[in-house]
Amino acid sequence: MLRSLVGSEMCIRDRYQRRVRGLNRPRTMQAAGGLPSMLKHGATHSEGVQDAIIRNLEACEALTNITRTSLGPNGMNKLVQNHIGKTYVTSDCATMLAQMDVQHPAAKMLRLAAEMQEQEVGDGTNFVCTFGGEILNKAQKLLRMGLKPIEITNGYSMAAKKSLELLNATTFEPVKDVWDEAEVGALMRTVMSSKNVDESLSDWVAKACISSNPKSGRFAVGNVRVATILGSGMADTFMVSGLATVRTSNSRTSIKSVKDAKVGVFVNPLDVDNTDSKGHVLMKNADDLKSYNKSEEEYMEKQVKEIADSGVNVCVFGGKCSDLALHYLERYGQMVITTSSKFELRRICDVVHATSQMRAGPVKASEIGVAECVSEIEYGETTVMNFQIAQGEASAMSTIVVRASSRNLLDDAERAINDGVNVYRQLCRDPRLCPGGGATEIALARKIVEYADTIPGLEQYAIRCFGEAFEIIVGSLANNSGRLATDVVADLYAAHSAGKTTVGVNTTMESSETTADMAEIGCWDCLATKATALQLLVNTAVDILRVDTIIMARQAGGPKMKGPNKNWDKDPIFG
Predict the structure, then answer these.
(1) Which of 200, 248, 452, 464 has CB atoms 3.0–4.6 Å from 339's, for a disulfide?
(2) C-beta of residue 503 within 8 angstroms of C-beta of residue 439
(3) Are strands 257-266 and 398-404 parallel, antiparallel or unpaired?
(4) Running DSSP on this structure, what letter comes out for residue 180?
(5) Alpha carbons 402 and 416: distance in angstroms, whole number
(6) How many CB atoms lie within 10 A of CB 107?
(7) Helix/strand/coil for 484
(8) Distance between alpha carbon 201 and the CA centroid of its chain, in Å?
(9) Do residues 184 and 206 touch, judged by C-beta distance below 8 A?
(10) Count of CB atoms within 10 A of residue 271's CB?
């Protein structure tokens, strides 16, 4: 009994001494729990080459595998349902990435690079995503070989700089005249061939851009408007030299069309003015009441008469008109259009060269807009107001009226027109061209691989991988066209080694030839598209490769909403 008590006392003494020594010892971050102890419960983090860098590269590779099958004129469509349940059927890479709601931070960076390409140029978003994912996939293999991230990023930066030098040194003939429909139309067909639209739409885009491009060359994307009308087919699409809008009311009077229109634009609605404070009117007999109503009518008639005497025969108001005002406007032969959008009022002013008026009344001759015809036209169940400018006259705006059988086709056509207009804006700034169909990519691949052999350090491996990554564009075009990618890449290398620098992938399904001369078939790309894409994706790739720790805080907000009922089609009574 005594022996057991002594033993337990010694055990307690030893435990106490160890505890004291532990308290006096300085606690390190690892002893205190490390990084997880600094973060809120629910936060996650990963670090190191395997957990941080490799996972980032794998996420970007997964995103690239989705978009690369939509590259080129024979690319496949994707059906995407966004967070609010709207469904998109499209082959446009920018639309897919915008509606996919990507959550991974590294994949988001690649998506943002594609979005910036869409804003800057309007074309080449799939090139950014596909080529960017490929160079990150090559970087993953280099990391497994033992190269450090800094060596890979330096090699990629050197290869991108060399690629831009090679692009700027090209001697292909640029666009001579940005007002020539034949030259601009050929480029638009290349840009819009990968979209799910009719081939004739590229010609309408070229005509609309040229007709709304001022001689000063300061072309703006807003000069080309799009009006989408459900019904008929896309072959019935046409262009209006001026503004065709569905955001205004129908003509409020019986006059539906006016030729040689003199347009007056008024910001405010036309109605009897109301006082800001309460007022009292003392009427002693029926004559006072008659005279009171008559004074309102006389004042309204005076306003309308002043407008008509100014020479105006089309009135546009920024609000509703009272029944009394419409009565006198009808009497004086005015066509009346109302809109609640201040932006639409600005567009109407730009088209007809009018100055908006703050109040209804006489309008100066210099502030009255002029249009060849203002008319109300019905297409199916949609009414369109046309402000048409005379033929041959320089218009500040052109409108493409798109017809299609479904809303998805209309949305796809509108996005394709926006891409074409952005490319035309870039073409006005930089008219240089380069061959499409993968010809430029395979030429850069050859030159970059040769450049890698001249670099003595370990960066040469990264430079060589950067050059080989260009083959993914050629391979994707070949696979989407039903051809064997390895055979097409080999044929292009052989053709470029023989000096045929404009040979690219033959995307014509009916042809048995794997390659074609892009200069002969007129397949050209804007050089600024390639240059901007290379700058954006290299900066993004370098930023992703420099990340060695990922810290994701717990998402804010309360409990998540319940998901959809899995048994939605089950009868609640009978099962």
Answers:
(1) 248
(2) yes
(3) unpaired
(4) -
(5) 11
(6) 23
(7) coil
(8) 18
(9) yes
(10) 16
Q: How is residue 392 written in tokens?
A: 């041959």
Q: Which residue has the tokens 């798109």?
A: 402
Displacement of CA 336 from its chain's centroid (Å)? 36
Residue 540 class from Cβ within 10 Å (0-12 exposed, 13-18 middle, 19+ buried)? buried
**HSE, side-chain direction, 13 A CA sphere, residue 245:** 21
pLDDT in tens, 20-69: 344 334 333 333 456 666 666 656 656 666 666 787 888 888 888 888 88
CB atoms under 10 Å from CB of 181, counted, come to 15
Which residues are paired to 264 by β-bridges?
A: 315
Give the neighbor-by-neighbor strand order of the sheet with 242-245: 242-245, 382-388, 369-379, 257-266, 314-317, 335-338
- The helix or strand, by DSSP H or E, that contains position 44, with its residue range, turns out to be strand 44-47
Burial tier of 16 (Cβ tally within 10 Å: 0-12, 13-18, 19+) = exposed
pTM score: 0.79
What average pLDDT does this structure show over 391-413?
81
Q: What is the overall mean pLDDT for the chain?
A: 83
> Three-state DSSP class for 373?
strand
Instruction: Please give the torsion angle defined by the CA atoms of residues 30, 31, 35 and 39, in that order, rounded to the nearest 10 degrees.
Output: 180
Rounded distance between C-alpha atoms, residue 502 and residue 487, angstroms: 18
Q: Are strands 398-404 and 224-230 parallel, antiparallel or unpaired?
A: parallel
**Cα separation of 271 and 75, whole Å?**
56
Question: What's the rounded Cα separation, in Å, for the pair 209 and 441?
Answer: 29
End-to-end CA distance of the chain: 72
Residue 494 near residue 428, CB atoms below 8 Å: no
Query: Is the separation of the CB atoms in 359 and 318 below 8 Å?
Result: no
* Environment class of 275 (CB within 10 Å of its CB; exposed 0-12, middle 13-18, buried 19+): exposed
Structure-block tokens of residue 69: 């099958």
Whole-number Å distance between alpha carbons of 416 and 517: 26
**How many CA atoms are closer than 13 Å to the CA of 421, on its beta-carbon side?**
25
Supply 116's token pair.
């910036």
Q: Is 388 within 8 Å of 211 (Cβ atoms)?
A: no
Distance separating alpha carbons of residues 468 and 453, to the nearest angstrom: 13
Above pLDDT 90, what percent of the chain? Answer: 29
CA 559 to chain centroid, in Å, comes to: 33
- Classify residue 231 by its DSSP letter: B
Comparing C-alpha atoms, which of 296, 303, 306 is closest to residue 274? 296
Identity of the amino acid at 107 = A
Q: Using an 8 Å Cβ cutoff, are 390 and 372 in contact? A: yes
Residue in 410, 430, 422 with CA at minimum distance from that of residue 175: 430
- Decide: 382 and 277 in contact? Cβ < 8 Å: no
Q: How far apart are CA 405 and CA 237, in angstroms?
A: 12
